[in-house]
Amino acid sequence: MSGAGAREVAEYDVAELLRLGSATLYEASGLDCFLDAAFRPAWDGAAIAGRAVPVSAQAGDNLALHHGLEAAGPGDVLVVDGGGAPFGYWGEVMAVAAQARGIAGLVIDGGVRDTAQLQELGFAAFSTSISIRGTIKQWPGTIGIPITLRGRVVHEGDLVVADRDGVAILPSGDVDRILDAARARAAKEDAYLARLRAGELTLDLYDFRRLGDPIRRAADTNGAR
Question: Going by C-beta distance under 8 Å and a sequence separation of 6 or more, which residues neighbour residue 207?
Answer without folding.
Answer: none
